[in-house]
Amino acid sequence: MEEKDREEAIRRETAGAGAETRVLVMTDGADELGYVVAGVQAQTLCIHAFSVAGKTDFSTEKPDAQTVFILDTLLRAAASFGEVHGADCIRTSFPDFFSFFARRGFKSHDAYVEAPMSVIVHYT
Predict the structure, then answer these.
(1) Distance separating alpha carbons of residues 66 and 49, to the nearest angstrom
(2) What is the rounded (10 degree) CA torsion for 106, 123, 40, 109?
(3) Of the candidates 34, 33, 15, 31, which has an alpha carbon nearest to the alpha carbon of residue 23?
(4) In this structure, what is the dihedral angle of CA atoms 66, 70, 75, 77, given to the nearest 10 degrees?
(5) pTM of the model
(6) What is the C-alpha separation between 123 and 61, in angstroms, rounded?
(7) Among positive and negative, which fits the CA dihedral 112, 113, 115, 117?
(8) Residue 120, number of CB atoms within 10 A of its CB
(9) For residues 106 and 96, is the Cβ–Cβ distance under 8 A?
(10) Percent with pLDDT over 90 in the chain
(11) What's phi and psi for 110, nearest 5 deg?
(12) CA separation for the pair 79, 72 (Å, rounded)
């Protein structure tokens, strides 16, 4: 119950996050490393927010290598979630920061970035 209450609290604090949104948490043992807030709407995986070590705004300071690793892992977890739930593209609710998404094949727009699911999830 505590996890569902926390997920609901995070959703309430995250702009654009609705009832269909999920909070995917990355841990190392008992330690929480970060989370991503994402949901599928009309076959689009919408990423509303990331959090690493309590930080949710990555636009003002270039993330260090450890933070980039965690963000990349969270992005891939969200993409996997989206793929399983029928998404064929990914879009953020925020612009690129320090070319994080551009380096992964996303196209940047003023207020968001987007890419087909295939930039993250590949089938052979």
Answers:
(1) 18
(2) 10
(3) 34
(4) 150
(5) 0.93
(6) 35
(7) negative
(8) 21
(9) yes
(10) 89
(11) -60, -45
(12) 10
Measured CA to CA, the distance from residue 72 to residue 40 in angstroms comes to 19
Residue that is written with structure tokens 């925020």 in the block: 94
pLDDT single digits (tens) 51-106 = 999 999 999 999 999 999 999 999 999 999 999 999 999 999 999 999 999 999 99
Residues in the chain, total: 124
Query: What's the token pair of residue 91?
Result: 């879009």
Residue 17 exposure: Cα atoms within 13 Å on the Cβ side: 19
**Which parts of 31-98 are beta strand (E)?**
31-41, 44-52, 89-92
Given strand 44-52, what is the order of strands in its sheet? 22-28, 31-41, 44-52, 89-92, 113-116, 107-108
Residues 7 and 23: their CA atoms lie apart, in Å, by 6
**H helix intervals, 1-124:** 2-13, 65-84
